[in-house]
Amino acid sequence: MELQANPQLLWFIGIYALIMVGLGIYMSKKVSNSKDFILAGKSLGPFVLMGTLLATWTGSGSISGGETSVSYSFGIIPSLMLMVPTLIGILTLYIIAPKIRAFGKYTISGILEEKYGTFARNLSSIIVLLAYVGIVSYQMTGFGFILNLTTGMSVELGTIIAAVLIIFLAMIGGLRSVSQTDAISGFLMVGGLLITVPTIIVIAGGWDTIIANVPDSHLTATGGLTTVQLIGYLLPSLFLLLGDQNMYQRLASSKGDASSRKAQIGWLLIMLIISPAISFIAFASRSIFPDIDPGMALMATTLALPLGVGGILLAAASAFIITTGNSYLLSAATNMTYDIYGKYINKNASDQKQLGMTKLFIIILGVFAYLLISFFPTVLEVQMYAYTVYGAGITPAILAVFFWKRVNATGGISSMLTGVITTLIWEIVLSKPFDLNSVVISVPAAVIVLIVVTLVTTKKKSS
């Protein structure tokens, strides 16, 4: 089947955008201080918290990278495996959520500072910015590609629209408004996917026809990947989720531990629906559209579906991309305000001044994310880079805070440096040798350094 853009799909995008902007403006009126803006006044109940956790985690990384690209390029089994790291991550966060709330910090850097000192705070702030700006950038470009494919709009114009929406929704009301738009977007996506899966399988001619039209390797356990290459796709999302500041901030913004637990259980159950649904849709797309960019596999099906179904799926996917983008942008701006501006530039800044600076940093980082897009050819590539910079640089050190009392500042800081430096060398200097994602090198290196340096320096201090 040939791809043919349908401009009528723009109506669905337009209606979604108007609802999100209207809700954002309405919720912004309830923001009176920085706690409201960054942690929604710690008022999120289980339903909204579940929605914002879901929408924040499932964005362009899944719609244009992750499950979509892997299912189209390598097959259904490797794509379904991508769900496993997410489930492990959610269960781990479920265990440590009460401790996260007890810290009462706005950022990951604040938690790391308590355990490892000021240098760790500064280093983690840099890592968060490196990773989160990259994540925001591929939400923008992913949205641009989607509008180009489905409606015929130019990629450049679609990307600009995404940038404006992401920046505006993050700036207008912070987490107070983002959490509400996230919740609506999350449940819109669930509905869109549930409708699309059976519909696209029928349109593709049934499951037997789909299997007959895909390469034989797409039906194997690894899809033609080596075991190490497959691990390279599985680990980045796990190590990002385990230490993701966005998730920590949302868990800290809940009404209490009971609300947090209910929300996380709901999040896990819905991921058991969403992740496989994306995989099956992209797999069917491989049968219908054998020669398209892998990142467009899910969105291409909107052109094969009936207008109503395709429009709902397009609006839902767009919703996830926009909400993920504004969430990560808000989180990165929080680091700029509290870990850099408030720490070194204006230590006595009033609450209203900090609130104003956070909004300013949202604009600055949003523009920078837009400019960053040209450095990465595909969504999947920038996704793997951003996830690994964060997962290797932050996650081993932050998990040690909760699970290993013996860890010390020297071990934690050494691990963070090792994770970031190894990732940058593998990805940029060496240009990803053997076609392996850097996570298979940098995460083990960061964990080993954390353990060894902590044990060696502890022994020296005690002798």
Automatic annotation (TrEMBL):
Where, by residue number, does the polypeptide cross the bilayer?
6-27, 39-60, 72-97, 118-137, 157-175, 187-207, 219-242, 263-284, 296-322, 360-379, 385-404, 411-430, 436-457
* Predominant location: membrane
Keyword Membrane recorded: yes
Domain of life of the organism in this record?
A: Bacteria
- Which Gene3D superfamilies did the record assign? Sodium/glucose cotransporter
The UniProt entry's GO CC annotations, sorted and at most eight, read: plasma membrane
Task: Give its localization.
Answer: Membrane
Listed name of the protein: Sodium:solute symport protein
What organism is this sequence from? Paraliobacillus quinghaiensis
Organism classification, top ranks?
Bacteria, Bacillati, Bacillota, Bacilli, Bacillales
